[in-house]
Amino acid sequence: MTAGGVAGGVALLPSALNTRPSASATEHTGHEPAGSAAGGGRAAAALGASFTQCMPVPQQLTPVRRSDGTDVYRIPIKTAQYAFTPGKPTPVRTFGGQFVGPTIRAKTGTPVEVTFTNQLDVVSNVHLHGAHNAAVDDGYPMDLIAPGASRTYHYPNKQQGATLWYHDHSHGSESENVYKGLHGFYIIDDPAEAALNLPSGQYDVPIMIRDAQIDANGTLVWPSSVPDRTTVLVNGVAAPYFQVAARKYRFRLLNTGNERGFRLTLGGLPMVQIASDGGLLPAPVTRTDITFTSGERVDIVVDFSNQPIGSKFVLSDVSGPVLRFDVTRTAADTSRVPATLRALPALGTPTVERNVTMRFDDSGNVGLVNDQAYDPNRVDFQVKRGATEIWNVTNTDTVWGAPHTFHLHLEQFRVLSRDGAAPTLDDAGRKDTVLVMPGETIRVQATFTEYLGKYPFHCHFLDHSSIGMMAQMEIVP
Ligand code: C2O
Ligand code: CU
Ligand code: CU
């Protein structure tokens, strides 16, 4: 049995389920009436948030060289010591020695080549989440980098600007590897987006949000059941502050939690959403609360320009405070948020319709897609290159009542409907990952272009995909 080999996941899962992974995610859905989120109203101090550490911004990586118009990078995959609790370092698995891996900043039309060297004593590999890449460069779950080996991935970046991320995708161990730190930002910029004059440079800040279980010794605990992951890390730091100027900022929010939804509010300040997983929305959308789950990205612009020096705004989840913005200075601001951003590509004409279900088996130890655990030797869907398809994705987890998420490799999709109703604001734009609550069906549409070969689709709760909640399509000519 495919999922049977996943010792860590099997040990982890029952407790995670018993303690209801659904509990947190249920509270975090966007389906409740607006204003019911507790986050915004909670006093940070009451919940013990210290805001003693500054939020670091992940280091932007410099190419080792640029040759033939390609940016070439080298990143070791290695263990490092990292102190979640000051003075108490703990081992983590990292890209380049950093708990939040170095940010790769790419440009539409300029290829990137990254050579990863696996210095761990376990297998790894690298998937560029949200990218349109050849199958050989996708980080296929069985396509591994052995300890001591290297692999070069080629990313052509033939897609519009977007916030992507890279992470381990080694089947059965992706959950542990990502939990232990194998995650980083990969941001694509494009000229059309630059022409909009959105906040940029030091005012364009990637923010990775995830949970973790950190014990009293400062140790990153694994295996870890979901309810014990009570520490929310923001760029690797629990409850940090971030000093901002009284002007506009672009924040690229990325959720890398293994199995975690956040429902965010910003102390009454509007969050103007400009992009989702696959890039810009057609027009900015003012949000008062944002729900996003594992793997999703939301780019927002926050305008602090009318806020007095000394004012503070807490970004909160329903579980408590996450990050405090402190307005500490003035700064010039010539950026803007135009009323029109970028039109979404026209929806093609679908010719195929398929059904996808996600659930656990009755034991709770095996994840299933269409009632089967992932088998790399089985092709679940054969998709014709060039085809536009509609997939009806249903969470059939009536026994466990667990939320799931749906992630598609290779292409961005659009959510056409959610349980027959219009998609929510959280579903807007070009998406590659969405939340599907128990009993819900979402209808998504995608067009499969250019590349052939096998690509996975799966629940992006990596605790679930690692025990089988994954399937694969093969794109054929
Ligand atoms: Cu972010 Cu198949 O993964
Ligand atoms: Cu992906
Ligand atoms: Cu799941």
Give an account of the 3D structure.
This is Bilirubin oxidase. Belongs to the multicopper oxidase family. Residues 20-41 are annotated as: Disordered. The protein has 3 domains: 65-190, Cupredoxins -  blue copper proteins (Immunoglobulin-like); 201-330, Cupredoxins -  blue copper proteins (Immunoglobulin-like), CATH 2.60.40.420; 352-475, Cupredoxins -  blue copper proteins (Immunoglobulin-like). 7% of the residues lie in helices and 42% in strands. It has helices at 7-18, 21-27, 174-179, 191-194, 462-465, and strands at 65-67, 70-85, 88-95, 101-107, 112-118, 127-129, 150-155, 162-167, 183-189, 204-212, 231-234, 237-238, 241-246, 248-255, 261-266, 271-276, 279-287, 290-293, 297-303, 312-317, 320-330, 352-360, 367-369, 381-384, 388-395, 404-408, 414-418, 433-436, 441-447, 453-458, 470-476. Strand 2 (70-85) and strand 3 form a beta hairpin. The radius of gyration is 21 Å and the shape is globular. The structure holds CU-O-CU linkage and copper (II) ion (2 copies). One copper (II) ion binds next to loops. Residues 358, 404, 459, 461, 464, 469 line the site of one copper (II) ion.
What is the rounded Rg? 21 Å
Number of helices in the DSSP assignment = 5
Helix content: under 10%
Q: Compute the separation of the termini in Å.
A: 31 Å
What characterizes the major β-sheet? 7 strands, mixed
- The CATH architecture name of the largest domain reads Sandwich
Looking at this structure, what is the CATH superfamily of the largest domain? Cupredoxins -  blue copper proteins
Strand content: 35-45%
User: What structural class do helix, strand and pairing data support?
Assistant: mainly beta
